[in-house]
Write a structure and sequence with these properties.
The radius of gyration is 31 Å and the shape is elongated. Helix 8 runs parallel beside helix 10. The chain starts with a helix and ends with a helix. Helices cover 80% and strands 0% of the residues. It has 348 residues and is mainly alpha-helical. It has 14 helices and no strands.
């Protein structure tokens, strides 16, 4: 039990300090060489090189790379057989071969296999003789090297924990921004450096990279909640910046209804994954109705503030609708269908 625990601790440290790709390369390379050696294949170092080239950051890239490299290697054997056997084994022929071979791989869209297939081409060039035994040996090296790399690369660590942490970080900063907006509407003296805006830009950049890797690891699943979630938050973030611009335009000399500040404060408290958009949209409609029924302002500054507040409520409605569209896709589809039917009826 103690040995197992120590081994677990050691692998945890290695994962955090070295990285999964490095670990997989370190394991897969000698493994492919050992398999090739056990099968009696010569030049086992080639299998190790092919395996190293096949370790990729995601399952989808691994699959695409493995297929590209396998096809490119087969093409390299065919090209080598033609060029070297007809024109001889010389550096000039090798150069001409590569000048023809590389554009061919690009034409067939298997250019990811250029480096791998070049290894096979150089093996043939150095051997200076093609026969069935040598070609079979090269095929063994290709299958073992690419196959081991692909199989090892099928294991991908889950990115859920990192993505969940990013979600929480984004939501915390959204809450802070809403709190600051509420205080600005209440005309409270605050000293806000808006660092959360820059932090969110960084978080969205990080999430974009992680989400793409996670999507490529889920090869059989087109729907991806993290992708949709961060797309939604990114759109909301853009709207939040528009809201900030509007709030900064409010005159400090005009008294603003505390209901609006309270509503925004509540919005900040409800920034999480659950569906609260529908509830807040209902509350927003009440607030808009109350806003319409209020007495018209008597000063120019009052009219200007009223115009800004009306735009503010419109932007908040957009902010909430973005989340509602994500949380209630079926309702969105039905609404689009009703609109299309109405348009068809009007055309008739």
């Amino acid at each position: 039990m103690n040995i197992t625990y120590r081994f677990y601790r050691l692998t945890s440290v290695l994962r955090s300090k070295i990285g999964y790709r490095t670990l997989k390369t370190a394991v897969a390379t000698p493994l492919s060489m050992a398999i090739a050696q056990a099968l009696g294949v010569s030049n086992v170092a080639t299998a190790g090189i092919l395996t190293m080239l096949c370790i990729q950051p995601s399952r989808r890239k691994s699959f695409e790379t493995a297929s590209h490299r396998f096809l490119a290697c087969l093409l390299a054997i065919a090209f080598s057989a033609v060029f070297f056997e007809i024109f001889g084994y010389s550096a000039i022929v090798l150069a001409i071969l590569l000048m023809v071979f590389i554009p061919t791989t690009i034409f067939f869209k298997i250019e990811r296999g250029i480096f791998t297939s070049t290894v096979i081409t150089l093996n043939i060039y150095l051997f200076e003789k093609l026969n069935i035994h040598f070609i079979t040996n090269q095929l063994y090296l290709i299958v073992i090297g690419i196959g081991v790399g692909f199989l090892v690369n099928l294991y991908m660590p889950s990115l859920d924990k990192q993505l969940e942490n990013l979600k929480k970080s984004v939501e915390v900063r959204f809450k802070i921004i809403f709190l600051q907006i509420a205080q600005m509407i209440k005309m409270e003296d605050i000293h806000w450096d808006k660092k959360e805006i820059e932090e969110l830009e960084t978080l969205f950049t990080q999430s974009s990279e992680l989400v793409m890797r996670d999507r490529e690891n889920r090869m059989l699943n087109d729907k991806h909640s993290y992708y949709e979630y961060f797309q939604m938050r990114r759109h909301q973030f853009d709207i939040l910046q528009e809201i900030l611009i509007l709030v900064e335009r409010l005159s400090r000399e005009v008294r603003i209804s505390s209901d609006i500040a309270l509503f925004i404060d509540n919005l900040g408290k409800d920034v999480h994954t659950e569906d609260t958009a529908s509830y807040h949209l209902k509350e927003l409609n009440k607030l808009k109705q109350q806003f319409k029924n209020s007495k018209p302002p008597k000063t120019y500054e009052g009219f200007e503030a009223r115009s800004v507040l009306f735009q503010l409520l419109f932007e908040i409605e957009r902010y909430l609708s973005v989340k509602q569209n994500l949380m209630q896709p079926e309702k969105r589809k039905r609404r689009r269908l009703r609109i299309s039917k109405t348009q068809e009826g009007s055309d008739l």
